[in-house]
Amino acid sequence: MIDFYPPQKGEYSPYFDSYLSLNPNKNFSELIQSQVEEFRLFFEQKPEAWADTPYQPGKWTPKEVLGHIIDTERIMTFRALCFSRGDQNSLPGFDQDPYVLNAKFGAVSLALLLEDFEAQRKALLTFIQTLPKESLDHLGTANGSKITPRALFWIIPGHFIHHFTILKNRY
């Protein structure tokens, strides 16, 4: 079981306060796993066409939101890998819109996207288990801001909650 405390101020850019504030006071591993189950159940209860329909023109479809979540989690995990290993190179930011556009998530089945999401979450948890605890505190630079692997890991469930709330309320 993975259990480590959330990041403190100074371990991340204030930009991420909104995501981090969404996290419930819960064990990290349990939170990550419960989100997978909750998301799968949510999507399974919707009609098939729902996943390909944006809530208004110009907005992402639910499948594109899911793909964006997966992409973001991969990027955050990669950043955490680099910084936990002591890499001092500054990592670039990313523009989410071209990522979603170029991924063409609409051509991917919802079942495969959900499977990919679950696999990403399993990989995240096994990766964290391999890390020495002190590596969670290594400070790196991503998108011009200092951040620790601990913060990157905790941003993941908060980012998920942000988008899941939008899916539940607007779609």
CATH class: Mainly Alpha
Structural class, from helix and strand content?
Answer: mainly alpha
Question: Could you report the average pLDDT, rounded to the nearest whole number?
Answer: 96
Biggest sheet strand order reads: 1-2
The number of strands is: 2
Return the CATH architecture. Answer: Up-down Bundle
Order of helices and strands: HHHHHEEH
What is the CATH T-level topology? Answer: Four Helix Bundle (Hemerythrin (Met), subunit A)
| Continuous helix count | 6
Q: Over all CA atoms, what is the radius of gyration?
A: 16 Å
Strand content: under 5%
Question: Total domains, how many?
Answer: 1
**Largest beta-sheet characterization:** 2 strands, antiparallel
CATH homologous superfamily identity: dinb family like domain
Query: Can you tell me the overall shape?
Result: globular
Low-confidence stretches: none
Tell me the span between the first and last alpha carbons: 34 Å
Detail the topology: elements first, then pairings.
Elements: H1 17-20, H2 28-44, H3 62-84, H4 96-103, H5 110-130, E1 140-142, E2 145-147, H6 149-170
Domain DinB-like: 37-164
Protein name: DinB superfamily protein
